[in-house]
Design brief:
Strand content: 25-35%
CATH architecture of the largest domain: 3-Layer(aba) Sandwich
Oligomer: single chain
Largest sheet: 8 strands, antiparallel
Strand order of the largest sheet: 18-17-23-14-15-22-19-20
Shape: elongated
Number of helices: 18
Distance between the termini: 73 Å
Radius of gyration: 33 Å
CATH class of the largest domain: Alpha Beta
CATH topology of the largest domain: Rossmann fold
CATH superfamily of the largest domain: P-loop containing nucleotide triphosphate hydrolases
């Protein structure tokens, strides 16, 4: 592959619902551009884009793949992204290095949740967009309905450049160019000019007028001409469309069938003709220099900088960092500097990737996408630059890792291997988090959804030879008391020589502070218990609070008061008083109306307005308390509620089911509250064996 100057590079991210044909289109673009000799199929597991074992097995995209295509002396870097919501981080990271969003829409399914998400992401990230209505060859395809749905959802910005027409049997065979009023159909595998069908002429004029109007709105000159009923030339329409696409006021719609190759070349023509070159699309971008925000110009003349948007950490092929050159150019003689990691990395070899294929090149210009191998300390969203450039490109926010599961290796002694493997997987997918809970001793993994964690499990097995079990994490309950009790603890032991003696009288009551395990006070008078034993008594209380006598959970909110006792001048010791205090604690705790406390989460659920009733009803069933609602962008509502942690088990799946995948949520720990009696009973029964061990 030859080197392309910045003005001959286009970066296009493929977006849309799963199954809309993103991977098939990238495969078609490769085939019809001559880059490949075989048209791979998702069903056969032989596409360039979906090359990982899990992608082949599942027949869906899991990772973003870079698919460079050479077309009309232009390099189009297609970024094929997953359609499943679990992998939204892959989508957003790819969008951050793209200049145009290509939204694939199924002609048979119409506007789906993934379509809406793609549009919202483009709005959020200020990305121009083109819409391709795919799968026109399907017997259930309905272009007009899909177009109507698009305009209903996204407004008049949606403007078709072409419309399809069928043969006498209702089979899709060709297109009509609305600007040129030009009809073409497939004959022997090639598009040939033909007569426009009579039944389409009125529709063409109506849609053409609408298209010209939105194109005219791109400039005052064209608008004046339009209002004066002057005919716009084809070139003026094209220029108006280019401006409108760049400023997001126009989202042109094309159609075809990636599977049959209909519209594939026309779409690439449109990308080259209407979308901005990489150097213009991000002509100015914001970064930080010495901690201050600076506007940089995307040009070969600037000092080199690059943004890493993906990391591949394969145990066999090694580490590969994918990046976009933001400024300057990169060649093999250079060393690059990672400002955040304070590390100099030697470039060595520069690659352009096409799926899993690595094509070596001598240099990369500003705006282009490439890869570097074996960078030791560089991660996703890091900035690479020249030493002392002090450039840091801002990181973007990624989807929240809300699904928590406990992970445990099946093989004995695999804990260290698991930790190392998870670190590698996290390099590839930064939305997977890992921590060891110090209380429960469980290793916890967090992800966006079930599918993502299942893929992680399969990767661990296939790539790292580690089999694991995923289970619901242990809920960290707490124990406390609701009443007051006065008790004594007496420890006496005589074994023929020096004995042990400790005797305490204590009260136990709620402290009112659930943030602290205990409050210790003493009101001893007359030296009944010498002062030098007070720390030992407190130590006994402190240790008792680690595992309570009800269900062996940590104790909170207890006030312990030592008010009396006795000692022996010879046999008393710190150990004896500590033991006596433990005895008193257990007895007093159990007599002071002990209860279990459960953790409560502060939950925020963001859903389309039409689902708010269903969501609030479901939260009530989960013992949640809805506190309010706040309107957000794009017709969504944010529902704020308190909910017990245990009720969040399975919520990820249920929320997606209720909202068709459009709902999202986040939560954080809020406080502890008394658990219902039935839950307490079940938990106490389940933990009986752990309580028994405390007495041993």
């Amino acid at each position: 592959m030859k080197n392309y100057a910045s003005n001959r590079v286009r970066n296009v991210v493929l977006l849309g619902h799963s199954g809309s044909g993103k991977t098939t289109y990238s495969e078609a673009a490769l085939y019809y551009s001559g880059a490949t000799k075989r048209f791979g199929k998702v069903e056969d597991g032989n596409t360039v884009s979906d090359y990982e074992a899990e992608e082949i097995r599942r027949k869906v995209s899991i990772n973003t793949s870079v698919i460079p295509v050479e077309w009309q002396d232009t390099k189009i870097n297609f970024l094929d992204t997953p359609g499943y919501f679990d992998f939204a981080a892959e989508v957003k990271l790819a969008m951050n290095v793209a200049d145009t969003g290509l939204i694939m829409v199924s002609a048979k399914s119409g506007v789906e949740v993934g379509t809406e998400k793609a549009w919202e992401y483009c709005e959020e990230m200020h990305l121009p967009r083109i819409i391709f209505i795919n799968q026109m060859d399907d017997e259930n395809a309905d272009f007009e309905k899909t177009l109507a749905d698009l305009r209903k959802n996204f407004g008049k910005a949606v403007a078709p450049l072409q419309i399809p027409f069928d043969d006498e049997n209702g089979n899709f065979i060709g297109f009509i160019n609305l600007i040129k009023r030009d009809a073409r159909k497939k004959v022997n595998g090639k598009l040939e000019k033909c007569e426009m069908p009579e039944d389409k002429k009125d529709q063409v004029e109506v849609l053409r007028s609408m298209l010209i109007e939105v194109a005219a709105e791109s400039s005052e000159e064209l608008m004046e001409k339009f209002f004066n009923d002057e005919e716009l030339t084809e070139e003026e329409i094209y220029d108006g469309l280019q401006v409108g696409i760049a400023n997001h006021s126009i989202a042109p719609v094309m159609c075809g069938s990636a599977t049959l190759g209909y519209g594939v070349k026309l779409l690439m023509n449109t990308i080259v003709r209407f979308t901005l070159p990489a150097i213009e699309a991000k002509a100015n971008f914001h970064a930080f220099h010495d901690g201050k925000e600076v506007v940089y110009c995307s040009s070969d003349d600037e000092r080199f900088s690059a943004y890493v948007f993906k990391t591949i950490a394969d145990p066999y092929i090694g580490r590969l960092n994918l990046f976009r050159v933001m400024t300057g150019k990169l060649d093999t003689t250079m060393s690059v500097y990672n400002e955040e990691k304070d590390t100099v990395e030697k470039v060595g070899r520069i690659f352009v990737v096409r799926g899993k294929e690595q094509i070596e090149v001598d240099e990369l210009h500003s705006g282009d996408i490439g890869a570097l191998a074996k960078l030791s300390n560089t991660s996703t969203q890091d900035t690479l630059s020249l030493k002392d450039a002090n450039i840091i490109i801002p990181k973007i926010a990624l989807p929240g890792s809300v699904l928590c599961m406990a992970i445990k290796p099946k093989g004995k002694g695999d804990e260290d291997k698991l930790s190392a493997a998870l670190t590698k997987i996290r390099e590839e997918d930064p939305t997977i988090k890992m921590e060891v809970n110090p209380e429960t001793k469980q290793t916890l993994v967090y992800g966006v959804g079930e599918q993502q964690l299942d893929v992680m499990v399969q990767k661990l097995k296939a790539k790292y030879k580690i089999e694991v079990d995923l289970t619901d994490p242990i809920i960290p309950y707490r124990e406390t008391i609701k009443a007051k009790a006065s008790v004594r603890g007496r420890y006496k032991k005589q074994s023929g020589g020096h004995g042990q003696y400790g005797h305490v009288k204590m009260t136990f009551e709620p402290s009112g502070d659930l943030e602290q395990p205990y409050v210790f006070e003493q009101t001893v008078v007359g030296g009944a218990v010498p002062k030098n034993y007070f720390p030992a008594v407190e130590k006994g209380i402190q240790e008792s609070c680690l595992k309570g006598p009800v269900a062996a959970y940590p104790v909170v909110g207890v006030k312990a008061v030592l008010y009396d006792g006795s000692y022996h001048p010879v046999d008393s010791s710190e150990m004896a008083f500590k033991t006596a205090a433990k005895q008193a604690f257990k007895k007093g705790f159990l007599e002071a109306s002990p209860v279990l406390l459960e953790p409560i989460a502060s939950l925020k659920v963001v859903v389309p307005d039409k689902y708010t009733g269903d969501i609030m009803g479901d939260l009530n069933k989960r013992r949640g308390r809805v506190l309010g609602m706040n309107p957000t962008d794009h017709g969504y509502q944010e529902i704020v509620a308190d909910i017990p942690y245990m009720e969040l088990f399975g919520y990820n799946t249920d929320l997606r089911s209720m909202t068709g995948g459009s709902g999202t949520y986040s939560y954080e720990f809020s406080r502890y509250e008394q658990a219902p009696s039935d839950i307490q009973e079940k938990e106490i029964a389940a933990r009986a064996s752990k309580v028994e061990k405390l007495d041993e």
